[in-house]
């Protein structure tokens, strides 16, 4: 018997999982633990290895090295390889992959052929109700909308009670308007059923909005696996900072816990009291403030582009050094191109600092004020 304080068995564990195609390292030492009921989003630029990671978990690819466990069972390592149908995974792909000649009910019941007929029919009815398609059981895929087809695909994936559902860009074939709606519905079903899911997307907003955790990949590696808030507010690397939202990078300096850069004092850096070190500071457009500075006599920052985005107006400013910085302003504010401006960082912001390509939270050892 499990003690109540004993940690739950993870739904999925990847340990040092690698897979290459020729000399392309599509997955390079992936480490990830997904807890039961967690919804993890997997994001990164095209070719970073998202689909490879999913295919390795599903058993559609064999790792060259490393171990994969699903619900406490090893499904792939140096000596074991379980076929996809022998792993407790459900798959939902972009193109639905429904059988066109089978009814909705037959599609959903396809993976349940080991169950007695009556039990199978009951489970099919149950999952179709879950995705609100109980009354479409006799239809064929071509008689459904794209969103409905995607809900059938989810019902089919959920029917055998998988330990993990893997979703590969499930909404990318849907148009923009439908997408948000279908996404909310599908995520709602995953939540109410407590389903563990790994969800590949190339949409940053989607990754942040629906993930309990966001896994950011580049070049076959995981750069950061963290809560959406930490991925956005405390990116672990320069790449994560620039990929997950807009970011500008300025050369900066920390001296006696004071962070300064071309636009002046940015913030204090608690715990860096004895430091004297060059860093780069990451500034997001919502962290940068502007005000017109018509009275100034010296050359200085100037607005060089203005983009109206509806609720907000994006201003791009060129600093004296030639570097540019972006600033979101409310939709009522529009400083025309050419406006001389004073630039500051919004009060209370503690920006990310980088040394090289990595974020630093502690002052680097050995660099102190004389
Ligand atoms: N079967 C294959 N044979 C050879 N190379 C492959 C194969 N599958 C993937 N690759 C390569 O491995 C790398 C990772 O591909 P993968 O499809 O996992 O990326 P992705 O992040 O899912 O990309 P996208 O967002 O474009 O779908 C790419 O460089 C790709 O060209």
UniProtKB/TrEMBL annotation:
The keyword Transmembrane does not apply. It comes from the Bacteria. GO terms for molecular function: ABC-type quaternary ammonium compound transporting activity; ATP binding; ATP hydrolysis activity. InterPro entries: AAA+_ATPase (IPR003593), ABC_SmlMolc_Importer (IPR050093), ABC_transporter-like_ATP-bd (IPR003439), ABC_transporter-like_CS (IPR017871), Mo/tungstate-bd_C_term_dom (IPR008995), P-loop_NTPase (IPR027417). Residues 12-244 form the ABC transporter domain. Its EC number is 7.6.2.9. The keyword Transport applies. It is an enzyme of class 7 (translocase). Keywords: ATP-binding, Nucleotide-binding, Transport. This is ABC-type quaternary amine transporter. It comes from Nocardioides cavernaquae.
């Amino acid at each position: 018997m499990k003690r109540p304080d004993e940690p739950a068995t993870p739904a999925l564990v990847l340990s040092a999982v690698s897979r290459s195609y020729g000399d392309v390292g599509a997955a390079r030492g992936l480490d990830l633990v997904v807890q039961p009921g967690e919804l993890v989003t997997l994001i990164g630029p095209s070719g970073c290895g998202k689909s490879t990671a999913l295919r390795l978990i599903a058993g559609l690819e064999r790792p060259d090295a490393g171990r994969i466990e699903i619900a406490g069972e090893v499904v792939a390592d140096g000596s074991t390889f379980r076929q996809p149908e022998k792993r407790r995974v459900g798959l939902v792909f972009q193109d639905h992959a429904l059988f066109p000649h089978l009814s909705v009910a037959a599609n959903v019941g396809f993976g349940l052929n080991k169950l007695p007929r009556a039990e199978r029919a009951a489970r099919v009815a149950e999952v179709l109700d879950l995705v609100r398609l109980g009354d479409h059981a006799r239809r064929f895929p071509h008689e459904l909308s794209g969103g409905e087809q995607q809900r059938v695909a989810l019902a089919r994936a959920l029917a055998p009670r998988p330990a993990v559902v893997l979703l590969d860009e499930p909404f990318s074939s849907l148009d923009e308007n439908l997408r948000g709606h279908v996404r909310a519905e599908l995520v709602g079903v995953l939540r109410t059923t407590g389903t563990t899911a790994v969800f590949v997307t190339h949409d940053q907003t989607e990754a942040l909005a629906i993930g309990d955790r966001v896994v950011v990949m580049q070049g076959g590696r995981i750069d950061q696996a963290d809560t959406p808030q930490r991925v956005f507010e405390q990116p672990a690397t320069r790449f994560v900072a620039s990929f997950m939202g807009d970011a500008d990078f300025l050369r900066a300096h920390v001296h006696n816990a004071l962070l300064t850069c071309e636009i002046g004092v940015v913030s204090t850096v608690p715990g860096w009291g004895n430091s004297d070190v060059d860093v780069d500071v990451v500034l997001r457009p919502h962290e940068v403030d502007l005000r017109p500075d018509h009275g100034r006599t010296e050359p200085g920052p100037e607005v060089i582009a203005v983009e109206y985005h509806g609720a907000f107006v994006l201003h791009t400013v060129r600093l004296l050094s030639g570097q540019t910085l972006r600033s979101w302003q409310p939709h009522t504010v529009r400083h025309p191109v050419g406006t001389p401006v004073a630039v500051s960082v919004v009060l209370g912001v503690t920006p990310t600092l980088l040394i090289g390509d990595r974020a630093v939270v502690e002052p680097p050892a050995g660099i102190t004020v004389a």
